[in-house]
Structure to design on (226 residues):
């Protein structure tokens, strides 16, 4: 497990170095709730298809929804915590949204350790229970690590010994490396990174702005209707 963790951290360092060289000024004039222009850019369909092929992604809202929204998130990203609550509300009020959670642990070792436990929960639990776990992890304060994640897994009824066994699989490093590689290719420079309607929205625009984007994609097939 230690070797796998070092491998994952190395992948993280390499990816962050790549992202630092990129810039995103906003291809579409998407305004965040605070009035600022939110960074965004188009992504090719073949890259969106690669997200669907990733292991350890979980569809947590309407698998048959007309609008697919992919969220790349890190458990220790405060904006991801806020986005998680808003996305849960959005999927309750708009049943046409297919929400796909994509773990993207880029904020250090605690995030990677928590992602290991999340990896196990994704393999062991139903999508509904996984989503409960997701919100439970965010419920507390402070840094989120494997201990916080183990506690959340226990709350949804999973045995810690079994979760720990799956979380220690060497495959985790390979899976997360592919998540990082795809995120890099998509230009995810900050979390949360949201892919919807063929566009990557980098950072969290806020509930109102994101709702407008989803409504536009449902109506016009793009993030902004003509």
């Amino acid at each position: 497990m230690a070797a796998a963790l070092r491998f994952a951290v190395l992948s993280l360092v390499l990816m962050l170095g790549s992202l630092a060289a990129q810039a995103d000024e906003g291809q579409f004039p998407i305004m965040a709730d605070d009035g600022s222009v939110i960074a965004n850019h188009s992504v090719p369909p073949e890259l969106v298809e690669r997200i669907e092929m990733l292991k350890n992604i979980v569809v947590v809202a309407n698998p048959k929804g007309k609008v697919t929204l992919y969220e790349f998130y890190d458990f220790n990203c405060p904006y991801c915590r806020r986005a998680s609550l808003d996305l849960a509300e959005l999927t309750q009020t708009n049943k046409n949204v297919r929400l796909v959670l994509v773990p993207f642990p880029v904020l250090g070792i605690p995030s990677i350790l928590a992602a290991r436990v999340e990896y196990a929960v994704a393999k062991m639990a139903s999508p509904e229970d996984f989503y409960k776990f997701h919100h439970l992890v965010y419920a507390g304060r402070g840094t989120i690590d494997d201990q916080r994640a183990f506690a959340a897994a226990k709350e949804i009824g999973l045995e810690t010994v079994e979760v720990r066994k799956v979380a220690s699989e060497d495959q985790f490093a390979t899976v997360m490396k592919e998540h990082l590689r795809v995120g890099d290719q998509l230009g995810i420079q900050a979390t949360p990174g949201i892919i919807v309607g063929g566009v990557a929205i980098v950072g969290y625009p806020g509930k109102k702005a994101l709702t407008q984007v989803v409504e536009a994609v449902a109506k016009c097939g793009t993030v902004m209707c003509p």
In short: Strands lie at 40-42, 58-61, 67-73, 97-103, 193-196, 199-202. The longest helix spans residues 2-20.
